[in-house]
Amino acid sequence: MKNKVSKIGVLTSGGDAPGMNAAIRAVVRTGIYYGLDVFGIVRGYSGMIENDIFKMESKSVANIIQRGGTILKTARCKEFFEPAGRKKAYDNLKKLGIDGLVVIGGDGSFRGAQKFSTEFDIPCIGLPGTIDKDMAGTDFTIGFDTAVNTAISAIDKIRDTADAHDRLFIIEVMGRDSGYIALHSGIGTGAENILIPEHKTDIHEVIARLQEKEKRKKLVNLLVVAEGDEFGGANEVAKAIKQQMPNADIKVCILGHIQRGGAPSSLDRVIASRLGYAAVECLIKGERSNTMIGIVNNHLHYTPLDQAVKATQTIDPEWLKIVKILAS
Ligand code: ADP
């Protein structure tokens, strides 16, 4: 059977996530296995527009599976929002004969890929690469598990010092508009409460629980706040609590970009490898284009890009019930 594509490009776009390198490696090695030419596109859509594109060999991806970040670099590219920018990008790909594209990124990157692949005759496969896990059509995104593990390891250390001083720590984690990092890292560290954008925060209830614990002399408490929580970040939450509990010893810790870096976890390496392989299989068969590949119930799962970018995730309130019961 003749492959539907012969030259493919791979890029990473938007926010970086640990495991992107493992996905690049899988795309390159699978492409070469099937006799394709594989091109690396540098700095996401910017590299497509600026023609910063190079041919990759098997050895180009040696020794990267364990590295965080992305060897192809990533960027946010304003020009790609404009039809003229996307046309420039298309012309560059055409000149090189690239006839298939793998985009590793978040929902913004998929919005770009979706537009590009409907405007031009280049099929795009999207692989969900974001620490935020803010995408439908997949149980995991590349980088989420590592980010949660990083947050957990940091919060464990915070608990040691909180315990030594009988302190209340308010810890802010990443996730943009998504509460998944907060939810998983909060459950994994036994947080007293978790504040996420998917559920309206009742600060009076949060404070009432803390006051009740204060009465019981349980003074060590960790609150995990998602950066996108509608009440505001950790500093806002601390201010509101301090007003009602002036004697409480409160510290704020914003974990920040450490959550993006570091060696990918075993889970992220494995899903990135599976997804990278699947992306190339998809392109050479030509059965699906303009598709995001995810993993649902441990099976590869295919979602049209336009549906993947439209869908929003919800979080079952039962998760928060679990937090309350276990933290009592
Ligand atoms: P992420 O992929 O992590 O969600 P962004 O939202 O910043 O990151 O998107 C990455 C890039 O994808 C943008 O800088 C832009 O080049 C491209 N992009 C995002 N949304 C669109 C859109 N609606 N149309 C065209 N390109 C887009």
Summarize this, please?
It is built from 11 helices and 11 strands.
What's the helix and strand layout?
Elements: E1 7-12, H1 20-33, E2 37-41, H2 45-50, E3 53-56, H3 83-96, E4 100-105, H4 107-119, E5 124-128, H5 144-165, E6 168-173, H6 180-188, E7 193-195, H7 203-215, E8 221-226, H8 234-244, E9 250-254, H9 266-285, E10 291-296, E11 299-304, H10 305-310, H11 318-326
Parallel strand pairs: 1-2, 1-4, 4-5, 5-10, 6-8, 6-9, 7-8
Antiparallel strand pairs: 2-3, 10-11
Helix pairs in contact: 1-9, 5-6
The protein binds adenosine-5'-diphosphate (ADP).
Description:
- The structure is a single chain.
- The chain is α/β, with parallel strands linked by helices and 328 residues long.
- It has 2 domains: 7-143 and 264-308, Rossmann fold (3-Layer(aba) Sandwich); 147-260, 3-Layer(aba) Sandwich (Rossmann fold).
- The chain is 42% helix and 18% strand.
- Strands 3-2-1-4-5-10-11 form a 7-stranded mixed β-sheet, with helices on both faces. It has a 4-stranded parallel β-sheet with strand order 7-8-6-9, with helices on both faces.
- Strand 1, helix 1 and strand 2 (37-41) form a beta-alpha-beta unit.
- The longest helix has 22 residues, at 144-165.
- The protein starts with 6 loop residues before the first strand and ends with a helix.
- The mean pLDDT is 95.
- It binds adenosine-5'-diphosphate.
- The site of adenosine-5'-diphosphate has 17 residues, from helix 4.
